[in-house]
Amino acid sequence: MNTLTIFLALPGPASLALIAGALILLFGGRKIPELMKGIGGGIKEFKKATQEEDEDKKEDIKKVDKE
């Protein structure tokens, strides 16, 4: 029963087409590429920040091990 409710919550192709149509009406055809570019840039910055954080943690562990 639990699996069934999860699959019913996922949007189907018709729902995705409706959402895409609404986005085109709201933002217009010219604004959508700019919006996607901004989202992609945000994701890229997030990944870069998480990688830098991991590197900093590794450096801290190395410093503690040396001491």
Radius of gyration: 21 Å
* Silhouette: elongated
- Strand count: 0
Unreliable runs: none
Whole-number mean pLDDT = 82
The helix content, as a percent range, equals over 70%
Helix/strand-derived category reads mainly alpha
Biggest sheet layout: none
Helix run count: 3
Order of helices and strands: HHH
Please report which band the strand proportion falls in: under 5%, 5-15%, 15-25%, 25-35%, 35-45% or over 45%: under 5%
The N- to C-terminal Cα distance equals 55 Å
Explain what you see.
By secondary structure, this protein is mainly α. It has a domain at 30-67. Helix content is 88%, strand content 0%. The protein contains three helices and no strands. The longest helix has 36 residues, at 31-66.
Short description:
This protein is an all-alpha fold. It has 3 helices and no strands.
What does the secondary structure layout of this molecule look like, with pairings?
Blueprint: H1 2-9, H2 13-27, H3 31-66
Supply database-style keywords.
67 residues; 88% helix
